Amino acid sequence: MIEHITREKAVCGWRKLDYWRRSIKNLYNRVNRIAFGGGKNKSERLLNITIDYISKAIEISKKIKESKPELKIVSSGSLLGMLSYNSLEYYEEMLDKHIDLVYRRIIQGEQIPHSEKIFSIFETYTEWINKGKAGNKIELGLKVSICTDQYGFIVHHRIMENEHDVEAAVPLAEALLSKWSVLSISFDKGYWNKDNYTIISSKVKNVTMPKKGKLNKEEYAREHDKDFIKKRRKHSAIESDINGLEHHGLDRCPDKGKINFRRYAALGVLSLNLHRLGNALIAEEKKSKRFNKAA
User: N or C, which terminus of the chain has less Cβ within 10 Å?
Assistant: First the structure.
């Protein structure tokens, strides 16, 4: 950002801009190599290089603060300059925040609370998603819950911000009931808790919600009922819906900003539904042609 601002007019103290960039990047790379590598005295070497890294970052932070009055004057001459200055203020804030996080984590050995972590400085709403499946696959983004009908069309979706599956069960059910007459509903095991099951059962006749943990006699009988088993097996079709969404753009969102993320997710759902509607119409047309030919 400073480079963008100083293209029009030089600012005192930033003649060696490339030197500052190379210095901090080299230290960053050295920290990474030691942190993810091995060797003797790893902890001591990591501590020493991290101190150097943080010290250089603090130097840059101080230098930015000293230059901000002049940078603001230089950038005020154009719209692009003003936008660059606003971005500079944001990245300065991120710099100071991560100096604090790295210092507390590496130097002081503190466990950083999950709520304080930032997984993307560009899309700050990004969350660390661990589904607990084989391979311990980690994803970055936001979770999306989807609800499909008996024909395979997605009738509702929910963007889950700082929300676990168990917290979304009742809102999902209420959203469906506000639009549709629901006779049967099924959930993954992750949506289970006793309150969820009780609330949803009072509103929907047939609820398929496997319990997490040990079953008592009543729960064992319920989950080994033929109808429950049949509906639970049907629920596995949701995996193909999730896979279908990934093939319709929702494996990665190229848009910027939370609003655009929500719009992109909705368009992905619409795309899959249109695709399935098209397949159904094509199948119906083929069936009609076969019937006419046979007649």
Answer: C
